[in-house]
């Protein structure tokens, strides 16, 4: 008689880090199988990117030719990470990925968590595990295609979704583990297509494990928009009501900064542009502005899906957050304007930075400096994502809350720790 396994599954390959704010969440999965395995490699869990990025060096004494013969290949791609400006170029492969873990029985049962994902294999040694909730094809997200198995137990598909804590990752969503989360319902959209396959290894398109339908559309062909928030910016010494901008929200466990991307004259609901005195020093090399010290920013989820209260938190630039606060431990950065080619959201408004004037800090621009380029966060499908006004709050909100992405029903939410 086989025992039933209980969801969600708990990943045990978590690497203990000295400082979550500096390092984030790290895991050590096994990628590939047979004689083409990457294991014992530290991968940072990154909700700001999509797709796994792994070093060819970590697969041992093999090359791209061996990988081309064994795994479906989807061509060459370059992944760009911001605000670091680091880039990695490699080839996409669709590969099996395994974690060690337990189920949610009492006492828990040791399980193997099996999944697949698009893996960008690059020269050298690198380890990033992108699990973005930005509306990309589920094939890029290893957390959304998982199942768990154990000896003498039935294999259990895990409903697509995950919950993140500072030192714990749960895969699968259930009514019980979603209880108490406050956040936003998401809008379903069709997933963007995968890149064109470049070899003839058999490829079966992946989908989340539960093929239930929603609004008449099969769940296994869907992805979701990002949730809306408002961002209020109060400049130093400002004595008028602070402008509040309707933006899109992104939690990014890959960074401890906050990144804000919107046109410089992107107006709020009352016509107020970004306060000039809110911006401080300009980093010409990276095309980024630091927000000025004593600027206060507030992110608010509107009341909606699960609460009439919503969620709101604030931080002041230059003031270090105390333990248990959600504010960033790194800088708050203005990344300049996004582009507007997204098929998810097409906001109206100017798409270029206007010429900067003397109303800004005199340290903003050195002689000959140019306005910020159009930045993209790390993504596997740049035309589908990152091209909308947004606030990327980094990883530090996990100091105050746990984070839930329900990719089956379309929901992102938070629950206070403790």
Automatic annotation (TrEMBL):
Domain of life: Bacteria
Region ranges (Disordered): 342-377
Name the UniProt record assigns to this protein: Peptidase A1 domain-containing protein
Native organism taxonomy: Bacteria, Pseudomonadati, Pseudomonadota, Alphaproteobacteria, Rhodospirillales
